[in-house]
Design brief:
This protein is an alpha/beta fold. It has 2 domains: 162 residues, Rossmann fold, CATH 3.40.50; 207 residues, 3-Layer(aba) Sandwich (Rossmann fold). It is built from 17 helices and 13 strands. It has a 7-stranded mixed β-sheet, covered by helices on one side. Strands 10-11-9-8-12-13 form a 6-stranded mixed β-sheet, with helices on both faces. Helix 2 packs across helix 17 and helix 13 packs antiparallel against helix 14. The longest helix is centred in the N-terminal third of the chain and has 17 residues. The chain is globular and about 70 Å long. Bound molecules: 2'-deoxy-thymidine-beta-L-rhamnose. 2'-deoxy-thymidine-beta-L-rhamnose binds next to helix 2, helix 11 and helix 12. The site of 2'-deoxy-thymidine-beta-L-rhamnose has 21 residues, from helix 2, helix 11 and helix 12.
């Protein structure tokens, strides 16, 4: 293709995805995955408008960062600014997590007479009220424009979960390939697990329950390795181990437990970490969904909300799990463990009992993942919504 052809304007309708980073990595992590899926799976021209584009680079493989340049990039990244306006080709505008569009942008939407779909993409929850709110339309009092509320979720009555094309096949190929797994661990400076050793990914917020679980693993008869990506859990684990764990690759051993600090890695590699571990301790929104697709046992630490509203989300997740699988007794154990992990009983969970249940939990999580994989997929739901709007 000639340089002239490459710079010709993209004739496709454009989708603008707006993302303001509240904190941590979830807002931008979800939006990055959504934009990739819209671009690659649905051939949509996407612009991701965010106040923290630099965070995207932490989630990309070094080789892909170059590919985010305007030519050949899967989607365009634009730094949020107040002077931004929709393009003539803008067909769909997604406001992620109620981030509120720049005022001039929404005024232009109202005044330029073009027909567009305006979507507010909400946070994920398994709570039952979500089905009743998914797809509701609200008219802006001043602009007179309609906004559709899309809720991701775990059931057919919601927008579903992000699951890009080919994800589960890639996971299955990886988990069936010992060489690929060994190469992955080697990339983190670790050998492949040997004998009865089990590996755990710990990506959470500060959590007293994590200390109780580490204590149980340290006192276990069989060996554990807890891999901690650089972030809030790493500080807590270092204090527990009495070792600074200052750099990626640093490790400490306490009884049967080795803790290893690893770098914050590209999203694709983080997926591989979840696929390679026997237990995933995840948080927020996106790592929860990726843990589900990893189909390995997991515990979820909810992002703390005012008035303990997040505890309803925790209970709802356990209920959804029970609906999806439900061998006798397991859902009850899982709910208690989830609640303890989220601090409802001061973190004094029965962690020995929980670790004994891991094989049953592994089978149940696999089944739940299979059930969810035939449910709605979020990027696809948004595309269907846009088709219905024309
Ligand atoms: O980082 P989180 O806690 O994010 C969020 C935000 O706090 C947000 O404001 C809040 O509302 C939401 O939680 C509920 O957790 P989450 O959602 O799992 O996002 C982490 C992202 O970081 C996810 O996309 C995976 C990615 N990641 C990597 O790419 N590499 C890594 O090494 C790790 C550990 C994570």
């Amino acid at each position: 293709m000639s340089a002239l052809a490459e710079t010709r304007p993209d004739p496709r309708p454009t989708w603008d995805v707006f993302c303001r980073v509240v904190d941590n990595f979830g807002d931008i992590g979800v939006c990055r995955r959504l934009c990739l899926s819209l671009a690659r799976d649905h051939d949509i021209a996407v612009r991701l408008i965010t106040d923290q584009p630099e965070l995207l680079q932490r989630m990309d493989e070094p080789t892909a960062i170059a590919a985010e340049s305007p030519i050949g990039a899967p989607f365009r990244v634009i730094r949020w600014c107040s002077s931004l306006i929709p393009e003539a080709t803008t067909a769909v505008v997604i406001e992620a997590f109620a981030c509120e569009l720049p005022e001039g942008y929404s005024r232009q939407m109202a005044s330029d007479g073009r027909r567009r779909l305006w979507i507010n993409l909400e946070y994920l929850s398994a709570e039952p009220w979500v089905e009743g709110c998914h797809g509701l339309v609200s008219r802006h009092p001043e602009l007179g424009l309609d906004k559709v509320f899309v809720f991701p979720g775990f059931t057919g009555g919601t927008g579903g979960l992000l699951r890009e094309s080919g994800l589960l096949a890639r996971r299955d190929a990886f988990t069936a390939d010992p060489d690929a797994q060994a190469a992955f661990w080697q990339g983190l400076g670790l050998d492949a697990p040997a004998g009865a050793e089990r590996r755990v990914c710990l990506f959470g917020y500060e959590n007293p329950a994590a200390i109780a679980l580490l204590d149980v693993m340290a006192g276990d008869e069989s060996p554990w390795t807890v891999v901690v990506p650089e972030d809030r859990s790493a500080t807590q684990v270092a204090a527990w181990a009495g070792s600074p764990l200052a750099r990626p690759g640093d490790s400490a051993v306490v009884g049967a437990l080795r803790v290893v600090r690893v770098p914050f890695m590209a999203q694709d590699r983080f997926d591989q970490l979840l696929w390679a571990c026997d237990l995933n301790l995840v948080r927020g929104e996106d790592s929860l969904v990726r843990a589900l697709w990893a189909a390995r046992p997991f515990l979820w630490q909810a992002y703390v909300q005012p008035d303990d509203a997040h505890l309803d989300k925790v209970a709802a997740l356990a209920t959804a799990f029970a609906r999806g699988v439900a061998p006798a007794g397991l859902p009850g154990t899982y709910l208690s463990s989830l609640q303890a992990w989220n601090g409802t009983d001061g973190g004094e969970g029965d962690w020995t009992g929980f670790l004994h249940k891991l094989p049953a939990l592994a089978a149940a999580t696999r089944r739940w993942s299979e059930v969810l994989a035939v449910g709605p997929e979020l990027a696809g739901s948004l595309v269907e919504l846009s088709k219905a709007h024309v």
